[in-house]
Amino acid sequence: MGKFITPTCQDCPHRKGPLMGCCQLEELDFIAGNKISQSYQKGQRIFHEGSPALGLHCVSQGKIKVTKASGDGKEQIVRLAKDGDMLGFQSVLTETRYTTSAVALEDCVVCFIPRADFFRVWQSNVQFSTSLMQMMAKALGAAEVQMLHLAYKPVRERLAEALLLLYHTFREDDTLPFSMSVSREDLASLVGTAKETATRLLSDFKEAGIIATRGSQVTILKPNSLSEIASLYD
User: What is the pTM of this model?
Assistant: First the structure.
């Protein structure tokens, strides 16, 4: 990442998103005057599961994984986040502590909105609060689907689904094959399986010509084939 430049809410390319798009200009000015912008290196934690939920995090730039620790200490990726996404809003509204952790998948920039400022806008702007409730409902629905798939879908189908999730979340150019650096540990955590199993199944997909790999780089060549595999048990 180049020289860090503090992003401004008024000029943010994501200000028309489902949440900030509900804010009036004076509300954006208020948020911009109190928020804190910070750069994070790949692998650095943005917030920790169990720590006080002090505010809302808005991804200005970069890719992030949201994780939850299981009873045996293993990490499960429960969500992926990209530019313009909001993090931690469920915990800020319903809990006193974060129920998940957020970790940078690459160098990124995240803006932090203090809890009190977030609630000031939430209480005064009906559109903002309605949009937030819709975001929470969508997140809950996605979590229920993920839990169901972990319970009954075979690992091969879940890996295809995980690769499609990466594809649909982070793809920026529709004219080129989607390619991204992702560790085998992260893929296994996203699928809910062992690293060795994820690596073996990736090799199977590679031999079938569905993907290409080079080190940690994974290129999706045939997303339609992944869709067919992922939907076998739907």
Answer: 0.86
